[in-house]
Amino acid sequence: MQDLISMIRRRLPLIMTIMVFGILTSLYLIISSPRIYESSAVIQVDTPAAISQGSDSSLPASRRVQLIEQRLTARSNILDVIERLKLFADSPGMSETDKIGALRSSIRIESIQAPGVSADSSMSLAAIVISARAETAETAAAIANDFANSVVNRDRENRAARIVETRDYLTSEENRLGESLAEQDRTMADFTARYEDALPAAQEYLQTELAQLNASVNALERDIMGLQRDRLALEETPVGADARPSATLVQQIRTAEIELAQARRTLAAGHPEIKRLEDNLARLNSGDESTSDLGLRQAALIDRQQDQLAAQRTALQSRIQEIERARSRAPQVARDLENMTRQQRRLQDRYNEISRQLASVETQQMLMDNDQAERFVMLERALPPEYPALSNRKKSAVLGAGGSFALAFGIALLLELMRPVLRRTEQFARATGTRPVIALPYLPTAREMRNRRLKYIYVAVLLAVGIFVALWLMGSIPGLQSPAVVPDPSQGIG
């Protein structure tokens, strides 16, 4: 400690010079630096009970504040604010890009979340705080109020414009999808009508019909074979003079009865053919016609019956072939029908989704018309602050003084280490390990005494000049004005 005090005493002019100049320099920088004022405006988010989930309020608070900040800090909006508030009027040489950058950096938008609500909830945003910094208190308050008014006034018209734009798009999309669905329905109706027998839903019915048609064809085959046998039996019956009329008549009556029974089994009741056969049988029983005429008429009747049964068989066989062709086309028809059904389902799902969104947008419009949508309300306007926002002058002064003392002490210590000299007995004992027997005090010369007095006078004058300059810089001397330093326009907003 004694060595340290001795070093400070010897290097006092150097230490005081560095400290005074360091303190005055830091004091000058502190006083000449521009003061920055900050003012804030608070906007309350008024969320009614009937909130629309499809609006911007369904977004998280961080995303909504980001969107608001992007709209406010857009280039066009920043230029409007600069022109409206006449900012940077004292900096005509400043470029437009620098003005925009300075104003953007001075704006801060923060969100206040509602207590007890999740950050991802649609109602998590409770308020928005818009802060602005400037070189004057009035300018900071004017900038904050201007941006807050932009949020409050433009929010409703921006939301209304988005609702109208969204509604127009959804309406046109709904009409387009409706036309596509109608066209798809017509296509499917034509397809099902063209391939009715090949549809998957008709396969079980076709299988049953095919079994019934095969059974009907077999029954017709048996009937035709029976008529052919009757025709052969009629041809073998003699019709000459030596034929027995009674046998022939009995055979004809028997044949007529068989034909009538077959007709009643195959034809509907009241059919003209049944009526004719009944009349023929009645004539045979009454004996009005001859055996020859009856045979001819019976043969003609059998031929006509064979032709009718053959036509029925041909029609049934044609239907069987149609069914077989339809069944062969069934796999491809099923695939095509599935593709059309899938396309129709996609169109229907899209149409339902568009309809749901359109209903949500119309609900938003109704809520806005009834003033029930989310609103931004100016809760607290920005006021000119009384004190600068960045008031760290005391701390800067303390740091400047401490840094100056540390620099002066470091330089003095470095000079001592560069030229070590043993000045005291304790230093000699530490350096050599032996203590001197006798130590004579140093007697300074007259020149050294004069230099010592000049050193103290220099230190006193230095302290007086330093105190005077410090008071002058702080404007504490009457009649002397503190030097005004014009700040860089890019460092603040005037």
TrEMBL record:
Transmembrane segments: 12-31, 397-415, 456-475
Coiled-coil ranges from the UniProt annotation: 203-266, 306-364
Species whose genome carries this gene: Paracoccus shanxieyensis
Protein name: Lipopolysaccharide biosynthesis protein
Source organism superkingdom: Bacteria
InterPro entries: Bact_polysacc_biosynth/exp
Keyword list, A-Z: Coiled coil, Membrane, Transmembrane, Transmembrane helix
